[in-house]
Design goal:
112 residues; 2 domains; alpha+beta
């Protein structure tokens, strides 16, 4: 029992180091060229839609504009993407530096 706990603790440490390393690598690759200082930090909640335009219930993202590069047509920034599968009861979390058309989404809510 003690060894299982020790093994789980060790695995958690490895996972944390991997995630920290991946995030550091990702963060260092982000284009930091400021386009509009007034828009830096703008944050949006995004609701995805399917191919025919119907809202996906378990498919959302948060986009943070790190360079003030979003405009009326495109959103640009760090996309934190969460999906879940009701049948398997599993969720996936992904992140990336994305540029997406506002029309790609069912709903775009500016939150500040």
């Amino acid at each position: 029992m003690w060894s299982e706990s020790l093994n789980a603790d060790y695995q958690n440490q490895i996972n944390k180091k991997y995630i920290a390393g991946a995030m550091n690598s990702f963060c260092s690759s982000i284009n930091r060229l400021i386009v509009d200082e007034n828009k830096v930090g703008d944050t949006f909640i995004l609701v995805f839609k399917d191919e025919i335009g119907i809202r996906k219930l378990a498919h959302h993202a948060i986009l943070i504009d790190v360079a003030g590069a979003s405009d009326e047509i495109y959103l640009k920034g760090i996309l934190l993407h969460l999906t879940s599968d009701q049948a398997t009861r599993k969720s996936k979390f992904r992140y990336g530096d994305k540029r997406r058309a506002r029309t790609d989404f069912y709903e775009v809510d500016y939150i500040g």
